[in-house]
Write a structure and sequence with these properties.
The structure is a single chain. The chain is of the alpha+beta class. Helices cover about 60% and strands about 15% of the residues. The protein folds into two domains: about 240 residues, no CATH class; about 130 residues, CBS-domain. The structure holds zinc ion.
Length: about 375
């Protein structure tokens, strides 16, 4: 689950989370519908009816986005890609796939189904409007609104710039045609950036000539598109880099461990201060018992350091651990999900290393510098 997200439901085994920024957008949309959009098309309603209609409409917009994401997730899962959760946040939704598609055909199917789902939803509400199925006027107003937003949702997402669905479709097509994933990603990223710039330019024009608020929205979305194109490319690169790296080649393979009976005082002076570390595994004859970090030490006053054994403040087993033969992607993911700054590396119940944030950064930096030459 994304940081700052609240789990609200579980559909087909997939956790659905709402990020707090989404609540802001929900209120903003409700307000703009109640105060501006509905009164123009449907004058003469009672004030409360505008607000009720607006709230239901923005809730259904939320359901529309959710269905769009569920479509991605369910197709991904049917093609063998596990899906953990769906998060709805400020600008829409995101499905958290555990792995990237390994074939262009799979990526194409997973990406295209989202916009298709939005078009299908628009079609349903269009039918409600066209065949006059709405039982009362505000239901008709909601149906009309949902046709418009779902078409917009599909249209925006199908723009051929990475990381939008259309960018993924484009990437899958180039990938399939050239059999070169890196080249395909780069082209889709550049088109994403170009579209971002076009939207920013169009937004500035709109703000000056047509309407300030819509213009600002365009600039904002363009900027988001532009910056996330590059960020997504880098994330993908990092992911594929990590896929071929074992924990054993990044970890600190000589972790300074400490016995459970040793005093906290000794830990601070001989390991933390002398070696510049912020953690130490607690082990007895090579067997991992727990881990002790700077944060654990802050829990007791300095005067008691001499008489307190490490075992009384450490975090005990069972801990999250990795094996030296795990790939780094697994390790990094485990650390990120559990908010860990370091993780013990264990083989046959024995501690063989520690993987810390500093080790990872050092590894990336050295690689980066070598790559430049
Ligand atoms: Zn999508």
């Amino acid at each position: 689950m994304m940081k700052g997200s609240l789990r609200v439901a579980r559909i087909a085994g997939i956790d659905i989370g709402i990020h707090y920024t989404w609540i802001l957008i929900f209120m903003l949309i409700t307000w703009s519908l109640a105060a501006g959009y509905f009164p123009v098309d449907y004058p003469g309603w009672a004030e409360w009816l505008y607000w009720l209609t607006a709230a239901v409409a923005s809730l259904l917009l939320f359901v529309s986005v959710l269905i769009h994401e569920l479509a991605h997730s369910l197709v991904a899962r049917s093609r063998g890609l596990p899906v953990k959760s769906i998060n709805l946040f400020l600008l829409g939704g995101v499905s958290n796939l555990e792995t990237e598609p390994e074939k262009p055909g799979v990526e194409f199917a997973v990406a295209i189904v989202g916009p298709l789902a939005s078009i299908a939803i628009a079609g349903v509400f269009w039918a409600v409007e066209y065949f006059k199925l709405a039982p009362f006027e505000s239901a008709e107003a909601i149906a009309r609104y949902l046709v418009v937003v779902n078409v917009l949702l599909a249209a925006f997402n199908i723009l051929p710039g990475f990381p939008l669905d259309g960018g993924r479709v484009l990437r899958a097509i180039i990938w399939g045609a050239t059999n070169n994933l890196k080249k395909a990603t780069n082209i889709a990223t550049i088109t994403g950036q170009v579209f971002g710039w076009i939207m920013i330019a169009a937004g500035v024009f709109m703000a000056l000539v047509v309407d300030l608020i819509s213009g600002i929205w365009f600039v904002f979305i363009g900027w988001f598109l532009n910056s996330s194109a590059e960020a997504s490319r880098r994330e993908l690169e990092l992911r594929s880099l990590w896929l071929n790296v074992r924990v054993a080649s990044v970890m600190n393979d000589r972790p300074e461990s400490i016995g459970p009976g040793e005093a906290v005082d000794k830990l601070v002076n001989e390991i933390y201060l002398r070696r510049g570390l912020r953690y130490a595994p607690v082990a007895e004859e090579g067997r991992l018992l727990g881990i002790v970090t700077l944060a654990d030490i802050k829990k007791i006053p300095m005067g008691e350091w001499k008489n307190t054994p490490v075992s009384s403040i450490m975090t005990r087993q069972p801990l999250k651990v990795v094996s030296p033969s795990d790939d780094m992607r697994t390790a990094v993911q485990l650390m990120a999900e559990n908010g860990l700054d370091q993780i013990p590396v264990v083989a046959n119940d024995r501690i063989v290393g520690m993987l810390g944030r500093a080790d990872i950064i050092r590894y990336v930096q050295v690689h980066h510098e070598l790559g430049r030459r």
